[in-house]
Amino acid sequence: MLTLHVAEASPETAVLVDGARIAAVGPYEELAEGIPPAPGPARAGGTPMAPRLRRWPGILTPGLLNPYAPELLERTYHPDPREADAHGTAPITGERAAELFRADPARLGASARRGVQRMLAHGTVAVAGELRARAAADAVRRAGLAVGRRPDVLPGPPALSPTPLILLPRLTPGAPARFAVFDVPDTAALVRRGASTCVATVVEGRLVYRSR
What we know:
Blueprint lengths: L1 E6 L6 E5 L2 E6 L1 H7 L17 E5 L2 E3 L2 E3 L2 H5 L10 H4 L6 H10 L3 H14 L3 E4 L6 H10 L2 E2 L31 E4 L4 H7 L4 E6 L2 E5 L2
Helix pairs in contact: 5-6
C-alpha cells in the first residue's frame, strides 16, 4: 500500500512510500496530485481506496545515525519499567551496568531491545560500531536498523542524542524507506534541541515509533 508522509514545516520534502521502499520524494502538492488510486480493496460503491496520508508536525528528515551502538546496547542497561522501584527509569552505565549483566547475562538481550526502542524514539534509523554480543546484534537486525560506518571522529559522549547529531544523506527514490520526523521548525532548531524532539520514525516503510 502507498503511504504519503508530509511534515508541516517541510512540505517540500514529502515522501511517498511503497512497501519498504521510497517511491518518490518531492513537494507535497506535486506528489499528492500525481498519486494514482492504490490497488486493493474498494470502498462501498466500488471506488478504489486512496493512498494513506500521514501528516506530522515539524520537519521530515532522512533520520539519524547513532555511532554508539556498542556503548548504548552492550554497556548500558535500560531498565524495564517494572524495575523502576529498584533501578529507576534512566539508562544505567559504568560498573553498575556491568554488575547487572554479570549477575544475570540474560538481561543483555532484553536491555538491548529496550535500548533499540529508545533509539527509534530519537529518530535513529542507522547505527555504527562493532557489536560483539549476539543479543545486541539481533536486536538491531530485528528492528531493521541500517548498519553504517563509524565516523573517524566521534561526537561525544555516548548518548541517544549525540552532539552533534549525524544526519544521514538525503532521501532518494528506490532507497529503503528509513526516515524520521522531528517537531521543530527547521534543522537549526533540531541541532539546538536534539533528537528527543522526534515524533515519528519509519524503518523499511514501517512506522516503528510515534509519539502521538
